[in-house]
Amino acid sequence: MVSVPGDPQAAPLIVFAGGGTGGHLFPALAIAEALRNRLPDVRFLFFATERAIDQRILEGNGCDLVRQTLPAIRRAPWRWLRVYMGFRRSCLLCRSRFEYDRPMAVIGTGGLGSLPAVREAVRAGVPTALLNPDAIPGRANRFLANSVDVVFAQWAEAIAKFPRTANVVVSGCPVRTAFNHTDRHAGLRRFGLDAGLKTLLVTGASQGARTVNECVVANLPFLEMRRGWQVLHLTGEPDYETVSRAYDHHGIRAVVMPFTDYMPDALAAADLVVARAGASTLAEITAVGCASILMPYPYHKDQHQLANARCLVRASAARIVPDRIDPKLNSPAVRDALEHLMTGDQARESMAASARRLGRGQAASEMAGDILRLAESRGVPSSLMSTAGAAH
Prior knowledge:
By secondary structure, this protein is an alpha/beta fold. The protein folds into 2 domains: 13-175 and 361-391, Glycogen Phosphorylase B (Rossmann fold), CATH 3.40.50; 178-358, Glycogen Phosphorylase B (Rossmann fold), CATH 3.40.50.2000. 46% of the residues lie in helices and 15% in strands. The chain has 17 helices and 13 strands. The protein has helices at residues 22-38, 52-58, 80-100, 115-124, 139-144, 178-181, 184-191, 210-218, 220-224, 240-250, 263-269, 279-288, 304-314, 327-343, 345-358, 363-377, 382-391; strands at 13-17, 43-48, 63-67, 105-108, 128-132, 150-153, 168-170, 198-203, 229-234, 254-257, 272-275, 292-294, 319-320. The protein has a 7-stranded parallel beta sheet, sandwiched between helices. Residues 1-6 and 386-392 have low confidence and may be disordered.
């Protein structure tokens, strides 16, 4: 259904902008789920990227997808024209869409893919919000912060990184409802795991992490000795065959998969997690309440995953092992952390309890309410808002 500007009977439209990683998409889907609970007829449109992961994550979620051609920003001056032209095309596309199908609100999820839609929404007077789950905001969010109505931050540490005039609200990072309702037995059944064994979950997030895979594979002889444990290893597509063969060679009780759509069940089954420190991953870990060994992505210039991980470490909810890229350097440090937490039930359980206290499982619902109130304050037709109130 296409709405006509000013038509009070048109189904409301919410636009999300951003993509390229699960960390940009899963929080948006969590908010979309919460909004749909309040507005059953709501429509969603994602201005995403051309990466295959965007379509894989978004398909089947009742969301329309617009792929933006936005080349990565490079320092080389001869590439700037291509970046500018891609950005301009996306701005014009967003502008034309908003003219005939005006959104109730536009929500940026971070990254270059969020810039055109949020920029054009601000110009059109559409209510706008940003999701900022990282402790160190990215360039796009810092650039847009003063223009939008509200910035939703996961960590209080992020506030100081924004302009003082930005409206930053510490709200947590939205996670899907499933993270609040799954349990260990459901997770074990989902993956065919043994209820009599403890479970180590290894994940490099939605796209996998080679150095995490390599250092865990290097520690398979150690894991082979942990008879009371089993492993659920999410490798990412590129490393799946290699990692799977390594487990087979060592005869370890393990389920190896390139990716799963059932991350709530994976975390519910886990007694210990080895993971990157992406903001969405940490929100999910704390929502479920898992002990974790975190290997922050080492290549980001601003080291924002390290800053994310430190938020958990300060709360005694995780342990950091710096990713030194070389498996020969990573493996001993990871093995020490594994030995400490796999053999020390009390330390692991204390860490899990601390993680659970950090969890903000209701963040999506609270943000949905804030977005609807913002839209109402900016003149969204009262018939739509009464529908929202009735649904809630």
